[in-house]
Amino acid sequence: MGSIFSLRGVVFRYPGAESCALDGVDLEVSVGEWVALVGANGSGKSTLAKICNALLTPTQGDCFVLGENTRDGLSTAEIRRSVALVFQNPEDQIVASIVEEDVAFGPENLALPHEEIKRRVDFAIEAVGLSDERRRGVFSLSGGQKQRLALAGALALEPEALILDESASMLDPEGRESFLSCLNGLKERGMTIVQITHRMEETIGADRLVVLDAGRAAWDGAPNEFFRGEYRRWSFEEPPAFALFRELLERGLLPAGTSPDVGSMLDALCL
Question: pTM of the full predicted structure?
Answer without folding.
Answer: 0.84
